[in-house]
Predict the 3D structure of the following.
Amino acid sequence: MDLGIKGRRAIVTGGSSGIGFETARVFLEEGVRVVITGRKEEKLKKACDDLAKRTGGEVHGVVADMTKESDIVKMVAFAKQKLGSVDILVNNAGQMYSGRFAAFDDKEMQTQLDTKLFGFMRAIRAVYPMMKAQKWGRIVNTIGGAGKEPDPYMFGSGMTNSALLNLTKSLSTEFGEDNVLVNAICPGWVATDLWVRNTEGMKKEFGVASEAEARKVAAKKNALGRMGKPEELANATVFLCSERASYITGVSLNTDGGRLKGLW
Ligand SMILES: NC(=O)c1ccc[n+]([C@@H]2O[C@H](COP(=O)([O-])OP(=O)(O)OC[C@H]3O[C@@H](n4cnc5c(N)ncnc54)[C@H](OP(=O)(O)O)[C@@H]3O)[C@@H](O)[C@H]2O)c1
């Protein structure tokens, strides 16, 4: 299927690894011109080189910490300079903040909110005027299932994610008249560096001794009995950004192998 977005211009935040990297790859294969971001310069450069080599597409990297508004402004100015404008924003950069209430830390929660809630919102604020003027735009927020189904261990991420679901729906209503579509994907457990970084906590939470066992427990929570691959999340994201999704806005697509058991 031709996704109809050849030549479109996209920012993928957190495109230097995991879900964001795969999203950038799929965009490039579709002929989209892409800017990716991350905090670590070397890692970002390596990702750009790798993506360009694998796809032959046009990809640029800019270091931007999503907790800093000045970096977000710099990121969008960079994209305008390299691409001329922005048609697609994938708000993906982020971390997981896990742990039960007894271990809750205000400072860490603030960082989580700064990265995902304020980071996503500020990026939208910076690109929206261009999309509104063009009467075409796609925004996809990478959120997470804990925003829909609260889990005591995912308390911090869950609160952030619920707020992001509200933001997605609210803005989809407001931006609809400008043909700017705002959607979200909600990953379950995806095998990325993020998961590896959180293994110690998962082992304790699941009561198992090794990372392999923790993965097995996580996989069993899904209907499909396995963890997600980053490219599976990327495929859903790129579809929502495509011309083929022209009548879809305000949805949060569970891309989780059947992890959530509720009706939304
Ligand atoms: N993997 C899962 O199971 C899972 C589940 C639910 C939701 N998610 C969400 O999916 C998104 C992608 O996660 P992933 O699993 O692909 O993780 P990942 O492989 O660790 O990639 C995260 C990306 O975000 C960037 N990043 C992190 N914090 C940043 C910040 N403050 N400013 C700018 N860039 C930042 C990283 O670059 P640097 O390393 O240079 O900072 C990297 O490019 C995240 O928003 C995460 O919360 C993931």
Observations:
- The chain has one domain: 9-188+228-255.
- The pocket of NAP is lined by residues 14, 16-20, 37-40, 43, 64-67, 92-96, 115, 142, 144, 187, 189-190, 192-195, 230 (CB under 6 Å).
